[in-house]
Structures
1.
Amino acid sequence: MATQQIAPAINAWDVAQRQFDLAAEHLKLSPGLRRVLREPKRELTVHFPVKMDDGSVRVFTGYRVQHNLGRGPAKGGIRYHQDVTLDEVKALAMWMTWKCAVVGIPFGGGKGGVIVDPKKLSQRELEGLTRRFATEISIIIGPEKDIPAPDVNTNSQTMAWIMDTYSMHVGYTCPAVVTGKPIPLGGSEGRNEATAQGAVYTIQDAARHLGMDLAKCRVAVQGYGNAGAIAAQLMFAEGSKIIAVSDSTGAIYKPDGFDPNSVLAWKQEHHTVVGFPGTKEMSNAELLEVDCDILIPAALENQITAANAGRVKARIIAEAANGPTTPEADEILYKNAKFVIPDILCNAGGVTVSYFEWVQDLDRDFWSIEQVNAKLRSIMTKAFASTLDMSLKERVNMRTAAYMLAVQRVADATSVRGLYP
């Protein structure tokens, strides 16, 4: 209940703009550039009908926001969640702009969402909703315009429906309109694991920088969806001890660790991590404060706030989720010598392999998992090193450093292109 009470007080769009303002101030950006980069280029709101299984008709609300297209077409996921708001989607679109820029891939930021609890819909209703939403936003998406991907409560099947719907409209098969597709439809090897894999590459680099041995580290993961569960498995494979994980139903804790693969099997059978044998139950809020070396927030925004940041014990906070830490919490964590790997760097593996998928689709030339992971490691390691250099040089935290790198790259592209007309 605690997160439901505080969430409305923290506006994700306000957080995103404040993070940008901080970087713009450090970079001494011109007032005109600040005004351009502070707002989205385009916001589309749609209200669309879907016929339900019982014959009734429901009207859903959805959004697609394009923040900046200075460096290439918009790129960003589509989420299905009952708490989706336009401000949240705007924030996520802005974060995507910086995320693509910090890892140096030629995309701008976009994001989409539908206000719906997909757990209450049948598979047929979900397909109907997806195809109608895709039709409504088809006026602004396309392989050279805006390329959606999976996000919270959407997956490769969702992307297959969107690709098929878009292809029906244009009259030919167009695999490059979305990424995160099933392999038979032009999906990329490694895309499913990409967000977690990229996060683990940055954790390895952070541990090396801090002189930490991953084989001796205790890890807590908030959120046991795609990114969280795979991150736990990859860290376990590194020899780390997974001592706590959670999902939307609650958290489990065992100080001497457990096998995350067994927890995933339990979750698939029982639809919750809670109750896994040999573990103690705790709340999501308690998990964030558990005594561990590495904390991986892989759930929703605004989890680490001014209210709890002072009690976070982890040395490394690796943000596999988007926007899990508020600006006030950042200051507290920095003062307490916590090393935050910011979301726009930490979870950029997903969009990086999405970029690989897009390139493979356009070229009709597909790569092996070894090629994908080698290219991903190269990009993530380079981005981490650049961010760390900026952090040490400017004496700022890693988030501000990542923002300074990203905002400068987008500002440069915007300046060079100039204002039309």
2.
Amino acid sequence: MKNKQTLLLSSLTALLLTTSSIQAEENFMTEIFDDVNLTKLTHVKDWIVLPYIFSTESTGFSGGLGVIKTGLFQPQTTFIATGFYGAEQDIITNGQEDTANFSGGFILFTDYKLPFTNRLFFSMYGMKSYFPKARHYLNGSNNSVQDDAFVTSGDSDFLYTTFRYVLPIGEGIDNPERIYDLKNGFAMNREGYGGGKPFVTGETSVGIKTFYSHNSFENYQDPDAHTLNEWNTAGLRFFLYHENTDFDLNPSRGYQFQVQYSKDFGEGDSLQSWDFLEAKYNHYINLPTFSWSQQNVLAFSAWTGYSFSWDNDNTYFNGTIDTKLDSKRPPPWEGARLGGFNRMRGYENDRFSDKAVFYATAEYRAVLEYNPFRTNKFIPVAIDWFQIVAFVEAGRVNDTYNLDLLQNMKYDAGISLRAMAAEVPIRLDLAYGDEGMNFWVMVFQPFDF
């Protein structure tokens, strides 16, 4: 797990557990909080202030202090903020020995209903950070090799906002905030929900997101050449999202789908213009329980996307990008990418990227009857349940959108231990692919919106 944006979700998990054994780097927010509409929590009202420590290849030994607050200003909101700092590390920049420290901060505030509106919600999250040893796969085609990573120190900053309008249909009529009563980590009075007719039942949202990210590469090899030393991207996303499950943070039945179009117009300090169209569908089947389980679920997900703008005739060389070439491609942490804590967990974050992508996964999820922490007063946050999971994944990126996406695919499989902590799902995933094994500590289910 070696890409920067993984850091924040791992840190947030550490905040909930007061311990951490996380790994770090760059694609966390775009994929998680970009796709997740946080369920509104009605039981956790107090401020949680927790220290945490972690050690990763890209950050070194590091620690931080964070705060979590649900129901800030309004009952459906979630607020998280954290600052972090790392021990000094020896690095090499352009052949010269140097030292650097990992440092930064992160803030998130979700689902604030704007004044004088009943259905328009605002969310934002951002990070400013410096990584001593970040790993980037600038040319991560399906046939690329694991050793092609570009290791460099540099900044990693981003800011994302979402304006989401809940349509007055289905559940959006009476409960646009999606405030549920929770008991022992399960949503109450939801027996008749999940799996109804699209747009007649469930909740449907449309909206616009803004995105901005900045990554600098201090270890570029030739400062006098036209090689990349930073990559900035900014633009808009337009989305349609339909949620039709019994409980969006841990569904047992129903489905979800989303269609989203992203566009960087190439204005300002953006490296180049690009676009990306994507669609995702999730489905959940409730199974009979056993004597040792409270809930058994089969969960499936499929995701595909295509960048119309990507110009295959412009190529890259020596692990860097010639800034004279305008390929109109998304950065490796945007667009058609695989690898990391959400998709293809047996591979490093953003390990593969290209013009087109297809991905599918299946999970068996079982919530255990056994929970030694349910009544443990020494645990600073409530642990409502534990869940064991087995999963398989398959996916591929390609330079064209055709049947080749279903051939020579990458595969992995794994197991996971998950828990509902402070009314937020956390997970420890262990996945194995043909490039080795990866261990992920994250918040939220891997593909649930």
3.
Amino acid sequence: MDNVFSNAQRAEVLTQALPYIRKYNGKIVVVKYGGNAMINEQLKQQVMEDIVLLWLIGVKVVLVHGGGPEISEMMSKLGKKPEFVDGLRVTDKETVDIVQMILAGKMNKTLVNLLEMKGGKAMGISGMDGRLIEAKMKDERLGYVGKIVDVNIRPIQDLLEKGYIPVVSTLGCDREGNAYNINGDTAAAYIAGALEAENLFMMTDIAGVLRDKDDPSTLIPKMTVSDAARLKEEGVVSGGMIPKVDCCVEAIHKGVKKVIIMDGRISHSILMELLTDEGAGTMVVGG
């Protein structure tokens, strides 16, 4: 198999990546990681490899992760039935404890460990550490689901300055010490905005924004914030894609240069997006 890809071709690939490596060296990119790319073990290994590779060439990568399926699984084991209102998990006091246990504990440390195994230097924190994410109750009906009030980005900046890959679990807390479950996409948008990141990658289980949701060939490769508003009105952006696109627009307004909704099911989609002309998914930019 190795002979198929000659050393000359390998060298050619690296030289083609050079302008991109130069462009992103020292820049901050935020990766929102969850869904299928997190459940599939092979994809998980590849995402970690991509992140470590970017870190090794001098890109400052911040990994923001969720863990919805794992939370639901643990709730079932403990005899609690997951409930959702408008796509958001209803989170009572007991559930927020489970969320904290899975996100800040199991998921966060597993990802930190994987990054270290791949040769990276990673440090895990939650949105509760250093009051990174200050939140308040979003809606009484949802219980401890948080609306972000403020982001104190200093803990992440400190880790980046010390050469770590920060791995952030999306929990928040209020001044009274209550913990809140925070939507991962929203948290990633706020964090990327506060960091004025070059790119925010939103890894999902679809190819990107499609004109026809059943036809991957109708992918919209690039859209502006105003295109996004129009596509929502036209009903092209609908259902579960609405909050995702809203988070992209929010991130752009907060200072992120570009946001990419990308297919986390594709091997090395992050590298394709960052280091080639091809790209992978839908890019959202200002204007």
4.
Amino acid sequence: MEERPYHSVRLAKQLCKGCTNCLKHCPTEAIRVRGGRAHILDSLCIDCGECIRVCDYHAKVAVTDPLSMIKSFKYSIALPAPSLYGQFRGLQKPEYVVEALRCIGFDDVFEVARGADVVTRAIREKLKQPGLPKPLISSACPAVVRLIQVRFPDLIENVVDIRQPMEVAANIARTEFCKEHGCKPEEVGCFFITPCPAKMTVIRRPIGQKKSDVDGAISIMEIYGLLLPYVEKMMKDPNFQPSTKYGVAWSTSDGEANAVCPGNSLSVDGIDNVIRVLEEVENYKLMDLTYFEGNACMGGCVGGPLTFENNYVAKNTIRQMVKQMPEVHPDQDVPTSMLNKYPTKNDEEIEPKDAIRLDENMQEAMRKMVRMNEIIERLPGYDCGSCGSPTCRSFAEDIVRGYCNEMDCIHIMKEKLKVMAQEMVELAQTKRE
């Protein structure tokens, strides 16, 4: 029996009221409302967290690892996303947050921004290769990569085959820690401090890697309150080796693009905006671009659903902080030897997801497609969501899959009732005559 796919985004059934708010906002149409309650389709969900943002009843939640999980290892290393820095208003130096993480129980800290510096250098080296597809698409946001797998499979070859910054950071952190302390790799746990559920999912279900180098993901929201008092009184750690300002800026929209390919790139944030641009890429309308950075969250990772601070305030905090950091580019800070020393490239191909296949048997799938199109012709085309499906087209698909029937459409049912009422009137008149 095939194992059910892992998803961080879950439904809190007892809180769901069966409204259609999440239904209308899901970018991959992965939500249905049946029996007065929402259901998330595993095959279509990309863990972008949009349903978490829009649910007024907090019925959509993200499952992440508790801080106590660090005790499962003899040693623990925190991998703070650079978006964590944006949660503390007026923060002047990343060092304060790094030291605060040690204070709450981590044995060591390795900035994911440092991993972003290495990835920046690796991508810039990649861009020197001839014959690359245009535009090359960032692989940093796992929600966007899964979106491509589900809705834009023809663009998979455009996705850059470089690992995410958190994966590179975890590998470097564990290797250097073991070398310094003489311990075994299995004794060291690396935990990403995450702004979004998609990162949690990609740790459990890696994209482009056989196994993730990250052992768990802890929500920014969970540890923010623990870190705040330490950050407010923290002094600089003289032994800290900071990342560059470019690595820190990866936390905001256009930060990656400015570091990787400032001259001929495009940065887009918000999953709906990303979809519109990917449609243009798929239709060969952006062939003049060299690099495309897509962020599922508005503002970039600082806008993740598991963050504490307002995304605009967080973005401004990051912007003010990087202004004070030295002007050192990853090309200068990351030697080429480092790219050879640590793995930066994927070790597996990214495969498309057959989420929209109607049937395993091609002939049966074609028959269902014909029936689906016939049903669509009979539907009103309002895309109102009252049937429990996000659009009339997805409703027709759900019918041929056996999940519902045409009478679940209130407009068809209304017309049917009108016909039945008229028939009853005519029958009554016939009897009187």
